[in-house]
């Protein structure tokens, strides 16, 4: 399997893991000449270019799109129309119209579209999935997720204050898929409506937002992302699932403990009448019979899933309609912010 990597900041990390998994990195691309040179030094046999369109006729089986957050859909469509499989980073589209064009391209293509949303496959999310699937929580009523960074005001402003950088271009609601996608996977629902609320002073772009999302199964979801002080020094993600019989949530803790999950099942919901509460620690994720770094597990899972899709025809781990639905929560959220946090319907792309 031969792949190309577009965007060599996050993309170089994915290229290194792809290589370790036995996937051939045949081409690398970035507009930044220094990043491109560094990647070419790491992969000297790969074709190096500053123009992604050079990949279209490079004989690739697939591409990994890790370029600017708000510039994935057009590239995805171009590669899909050439029969090249796509693994796209964590925004599928920036509008409903763009999302529908992406879905149409994926469904007419001989190739496939996969969404590279690694937080769906991180250790704490896997443990939460096991808890939900077991039925021990009862019917799910409320889900929550955070993707928050604790940075100084100066560092935050440097990241989101430059309109020439994609972080400065995107609406504050846009980077929501690290929270929304795991919640959609855990519930199996689709988003119906979102209300977005800014966090912090009302002068200018908010550093963080809260999204209140109504799901198709009646579950309420609360998602928070952005930059807030006081977060534990871990992997930035916290997820909670509350059901009629109990609660499962990842730990707010530093380091390795943040991958664990606390589960509480109420005594009145159990045959023995005894409340049960425990902390569950994820098992290792093995590559070549060796456990890998926890933070890499989600990325490795999506790369292994992408290879299985390309080489064996297995369905994408996260297909195009889920990717577009999750991304459109951020689009509707931006509309909600613009109308004073009023509710906005999320376009139905379920087919």
Defining key terms:
single chain; alpha/beta; nine-stranded mixed β-sheet; 10 helices; Gfo/Idh/MocA family oxidoreductase; oxidoreductase
Structure description:
This protein is α/β, with parallel strands linked by helices. Helices cover 32% and strands 25% of the residues. The protein is built from 10 helices and 17 strands. The strands form 3 sheets. A 9-stranded mixed beta sheet has the order 14-13-12-11-7-10-9-8-17, covered by helices on one side. Strands 3-2-1-4-5-6 form a 6-stranded parallel beta sheet, sandwiched between helices. A two-stranded antiparallel ribbon has the order 15-16. Helix 8 crosses helix 10.
Helix-strand layout with pairing:
Layout: E1 2-6, H1 10-20, E2 24-29, H2 33-42, E3 47-49, E4 62-65, H3 73-81, E5 85-88, H4 96-108, E6 113-115, H5 123-134, E7 140-149, H6 153-160, H7 166-169, H8 177-187, E8 191-199, E9 208-215, E10 220-227, E11 237-243, E12 246-250, E13 261-265, E14 276-280, E15 286-287, E16 290-291, H9 297-312, H10 320-338, E17 344-345
Parallel strand pairs: 1-2, 1-4, 2-3, 4-5, 5-6, 7-10
Antiparallel strand pairs: 7-11, 8-9, 8-17, 9-10, 11-12, 12-13, 13-14, 15-16
Helix pairs in contact: 3-4, 4-10, 5-8, 8-10
InterPro entries: Gfo/Idh/MocA-like_OxRdtase_N (IPR000683), Gfo/Idh/MocA_oxidrdct_glycsds (IPR050463), NAD(P)-bd_dom_sf (IPR036291)
Keywords: Oxidoreductase
Pfam families: GFO_IDH_MocA
